[in-house]
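Q: Entry one of two.
A:
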Amino acid sequence: MIADMSNADNRVAAFARVGTINMAANMSGPLLAGVLADLLGILSAYLMLVVVFAIMTAFVSRIREPPRERKTGLENTVSPR
């Protein structure tokens, strides 16, 4: 979907942003959950997870897939002369 929603000029930057955000979340999520669990109890880590999932669900539900052209796969063929 990233490739569909970005043009060819900024496609590499879009994939890089997604990869960076993914890695940052993978590193900071367990750390934040561990700190919350240590300070406020294990339930707080799970409650924070529910809040994050609710926020992400709201964001993802607003994404609409861009319209696509129907391709037959024959666009690049050479016609006989």
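Q: Entry two of two.
A:
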Amino acid sequence: MYREKSSSSIQHPNDPFEDVLENAQGVTLPQRRLGPDNPLWKIPPSEWPTVPRRVEQGESLRQIGREYGVSYEAVRRVIRVARHR
């Protein structure tokens, strides 16, 4: 037969979970991926208006991405932002 242990029998000295429950403000989660403090845009915002024009002239997203050293998805996001400005 299964019996649930009481919480007093489970406590361990210096249990990190108990510390968190008592001091919730002290909890910080690490970043998933570390990045630079000041990230640089690979496609400078000053060039964003030219990217949709290049696509309209027939240049592929992959060609533009190769020139800037980014993925075609990054180019697609720049196009979306540039058109909403």
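A: Comment on entry two: The two ends are 67 Å apart (CA to CA). Residues 65 and 75 are 6 Å apart (CA to CA).
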